[in-house]
Design goal:
By secondary structure, this protein is mainly α. The protein has four helices and no strands. 63% of the residues lie in helices and 0% in strands. The two termini are 13 Å apart.
Length: 78
């Protein structure tokens, strides 16, 4: 799960999270992996964003959707 700063947290239900991460040709799980990969790139020194706040501002919907889906399915990831 992402540790999203309060300013970027959204109140999102499961249906909205699925709509946010549902791609046209890939699964929700693949989209979750994609969002996580982008965070890992950011953390590894690829400076696409000035700082973490800029990352969360740009990916606000996706990281919030990720957290909703992860919380719902976390028993599958353990």
């Amino acid at each position: 799960m992402f540790d999203i700063p309060d300013i970027h947290k959204m109140d999102m239900d499961l249906a909205m999270a699925e709509r946010v991460l549902k791609g046209q040709s890939i699964t929700v799980i693949d989209m979750m992996k994609n969002v996580q990969y982008k965070w890992e790139l950011h953390c590894s020194g690829h400076h696409f964003f000035e700082d973490d706040d800029a990352f969360f501002e740009f990916w606000k919907y996706e990281v919030n959707a990720f957290n909703v889906l992860y919380a719902e399915m976390k028993h599958l990831f353990q």
